[in-house]
Amino acid sequence: MASKETTMLDCQFLLVFLFLALMAMVPFGASLGVNWGTMATHQLPPSKVVKMLRDNGIHKLKLFEYNEGIMTALTGTDIEVMVGIPNNMLKDISENPSAAASWVYNNVNGYCYDGGVNIKYVAVGNEPFLQTYNNTYLQYTLPALRNIQNALDESGVKCRYKATVPFNADIYYSPESNPVPSTGDFRPEVKELAIEIIQFLYLHDAPFTVNIYPFLSLYGNDYFPVEFAFFDGLSRPLRDGDNFYKNAFDANLDTLYYALGKAGFSEIEVIVGEVGWPTDGDKNANIQYAKRFNQGLIRHILSGVGTPARKGEIEVYLFSLLDENAKSIEPGGFERHWGIFEFDGKPKYELDLTGNEVNRGLAAVEDVKYQLKRWCILDPEATDLEELPKSIDYACSLSDCTALGYGSSCNHLTVEGNASYAFNMYYQVNNQNDWDCDFSGLAIVTDDNPSEEGCPFPVMIAYGSSILLHGGHLLDVFLRIIEFLSVAERLKKSYSSANNAALSNNSVSSKAEDRRSVVAIQSEFNKRASKIGFGIHQTSQKLAKLAKLAKRTSVFDDPTAEIQELTAVIKQDITALNSAVVDLQLLCNSQNESGNISSDTTTHSTTVVDNLKNRLMSATKEFKEVLTMRTENMKVHENRRQLFSSTASKDSTNPFIRQRPLVSRSASTTSTTSPPPWANGSTSSQLFPGKQADGESQPLLQQQQQHQQQLVPLQDSYMQSRAEALHNVESTIHELSSIFTQLATMVSQQGELAIRIDENMDESLANVEGAQSQLVRYLNSISSNRWLMIKIFFILIVFLMFFLFFVA
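User: That's the sequence. What structure does it adopt?
Assistant: Structure tokens below.
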């Protein structure tokens, strides 16, 4: 009996051991993946990041576009990959099946082999139905999806891939009258097309992918219950029939499930392509909230419970892996801080990917190399701070200052601290170049870490280079090259003059004075060019703001005063910049004609002027287009007003008659109206007191007439102001046309000058070649004469010897 009990206990222990062993073989977070975005100025080596993924047990990865370096690093791993196609490729792929086949051949098929990359899905676009895209990609999404799936099916490789489309959660909704998940449905304007895509996915056994962000619900609504955004915060759940909801994630996902069910696809697989919480850039974006949300999400997903409406496992991809400091911040400053790791691969907080209720630290990226430990800060001895706001704005526009925003981690800094932070971010993004820590003498480089509590001043990693170099910064680099060439030329001349001891003191003094003059002119040229480039950059920013204002077409949302003010400012800026470019051109011409500078400096100076002209021409053209659009909108408003005015005048002179259809048309009509047949006796006299109505209608009519008399001058004043605004816009367009013509003429003249220079160079080259040929002939003649002299000398020697031996 005891032996049987012992045997049973041994079997039980064996079963428990086998179960634990099998559990150990299953990777942690089998249904959990991450998004890896690459919109950063400096990126870690993909091989190091992939090793970090494996060290943390992450076995699912979503990429927003094909990246050869990342795919190479993933080769030979067991990480399951979803490769994305950017939205800007949808049009070409939707219209050309060959483009789809080419993309599949180049980016997918080559990794289908034993030991290749475990690609499972291809994401066609990213949130193409997003409302802020204004239907830009609606017509391309389904054809592109169809062409990609066909190309995958016909690729001829053994691997089987599925194409999907990641949608934003704004594709579905619950009505305001009953905002619960069970009333969920697709937006009416995209419902038909969305169902066609869902049907295609269902027929090809592909999943429906959706991006859900409870943080955005909190960010866009101050009245949104904060605790409902998390998985552990709501003590009293929200009820929807028999279902109870304790968090926004489940409610949002169930809204989608109900919408799919109403469309007839309740069984289709659903993947949550993006979900996460940012750590900076907003008052609700911080480390504490991010850890709380992501840890609660992981426990919820790995529990396998599902949602109230659909039980079971959910496949989820966290957003995101690393911070991306080059993402657009138009939605908000938080866009650059979604990562669970910093830009350098350090984990931001403890996160247990196993869901076992333990504070398990994440493994960081190993052996990361950094740039030198030095920072760019505001010079404590700087006194002239008039240009400081512009310098801060310039630095932030070309780097990442989102940590300085309201409610962000560095919001507590002083003005000096803000300046130092902005200068340092610009300095780090541009690889710690010494010339990027100047800002008109306001900044200095320091070896002392200026970080403050809760606000670190980062040092950039030593990988890659900045992708934020645009026209303005390229111009700065260009000017630095010119200065370097100028210094080299001066050193060369100095060396030559030092070796020439035969020169007189007066000559040396004269040449030194010429060199100083050349240096002064070149320095002045560089300062002017840099100032013009910065001015064009600021004008372009103002133009972008004006374009947004000019696009408003509603009569009730017409910022006329703001547009007029901004138009006047931009007009003054362009006029001033045009004059500055003309002066710079004259300075360049005088510098080139002096003959005291090298040909390289001349070429570079001419190129800088041409670059500034082209940028100013582009800004002027854009300004003209914006004003033309504004003129058309004003004309449309005027036509609309005249249409309604003429229609109203046909019925009555009362401007309110169309808004008040129940007002009696005249006092006489009211007084002569006979009472209805059911009105008689005392009741009739009480309900329809005719004389009393006559007495009341007269003051009402007088009030309407007085109101109308007051309204007419207002309408005339409004029309006069609109006419003046239209006239001002048209006159500005005319002036811009003249400026544009002047710039075009200058560019044309510069082109002719370049042609003449080329012709002179060709002529000079021909003269040099001719002189060279003459020198060769002269050398040949000298050589032949030398042989003749040798012959004569030899004959004389012979005669001399003959005379000595025989005659003497």
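The chain has a mean pLDDT of 80.
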